[in-house]
Amino acid sequence: MRCSRAWRSDWPSETIPSRVSMEINNEVLKSMKKGLAFQGYNGRISSMDFHSKATNYLVTASDDESIRLYDTQNALCLKTINSKKYGVELVCFTDNPGIVLYSSKNGWDESLRLLSLNDNRFLRYFKGHLDRVVCISFCSEKENFLSGSIDRTVLLWDQRAEKSQGLLRVQGRPAVSYDDQGMVFAVAYGGHIRMFDARKFEKGPFEIFSVGNDDSEAHVIKFSSDGRRILVTTKAGRVHVLDSFHGSSIASYNVKPVVTNSTLEASFSPDGNHIISGSGDGSVYAWNVRSGKVARWGSTDNEPPLVRWAPGSLMFVTGSSELSCWVPDLSKLGSFTVTK
């Protein structure tokens, strides 16, 4: 199926290099601009995910009930699959870039579905939640994943089995995330982060960290790629960064609060030293974890865009009514060597 796109770029040969010999610093981040925009959505993008290993692959879910697979390195929309019967809200890759997991958005079936993108075939259904699923985290090193719901449960799954492998009860909307090694996972709600050993989660959290005095609804929690830092976003428009070993606060940033049912997202850069986030007024912010605000890109939108930094790349993407890829503006930077 076709995907319309607009293409603007400063890269040589009109392509996005997967690796460049330039570190991510404040100057590079300030220069970022939209280099590529995929359009043609009939609704807002509700979820997106890069594959952890085949990092040029990006999958999106949209309010128009579509799941779209992209090759961002070659600026291609590879496939569009429609989920008219069940709808789609959240989507994420499994360890196989040809298989995704997604949640429904039809109001009557909260099952999760394992879908083969190659032949548009369901491989498995995961039933357990009684209300809307608001977060999914897949363990990149194993075949396990977590799901959290406004039914106040977090379920632990093995993608090879239809029944959940464990259940955690929470007091509020949860946000969940595995670390990159799959040994630890975090659950955020009610102003606290609870850290679990994935091998013995039934014993309860081994650490509980406070997120300052912010007890508003948690939206997203993520580990940096080295596992040393955690970020948490909240409905109140706060982006918190903590030390994942000690729970100490490293930084806290403010953006416009979220006044709709949208999600405030944030994402670490590959080195974990910078953060990008959406904002309730539609803007995109960038911070240096050590020194603070670096840049802000305004918008005429009034809902927070989704944000994801491409793993191991000098590119991040935003999702609203279109999918935009942001790259450094070379005209504002000194010379560098592109590594093919």
TrEMBL record:
Keyword Cytoplasm appears in the UniProt entry: no
InterPro entries found in the cross-reference section: Swd2/WDR82, WD40/YVTN_repeat-like_dom_sf, WD40_PAC1, WD40_repeat_CS, WD40_repeat_dom_sf, WD40_rpt
Keyword terms of this UniProt record: Nucleus, Repeat, Transcription, Transcription regulation, Transcription termination, WD repeat
MF term (GO), any: chromatin binding
PROSITE patterns found in the cross-reference section: WD_REPEATS_1, WD_REPEATS_2, WD_REPEATS_REGION
Per-repeat ranges for WD: 38-80, 126-158, 267-297
GO biological process: DNA-templated transcription termination; plant-type cell wall modification
GO cellular component: cytoplasm; Set1C/COMPASS complex
Chief localization: nucleus
SMART domains with a match to the protein in the record: WD40
Family as reported in the entry's similarity comment: Belongs to the WD repeat SWD2 family.
Name of protein: Uncharacterized protein
Species, as recorded: Setaria viridis
Source taxonomy: Eukaryota, Viridiplantae, Streptophyta, Embryophyta, Tracheophyta
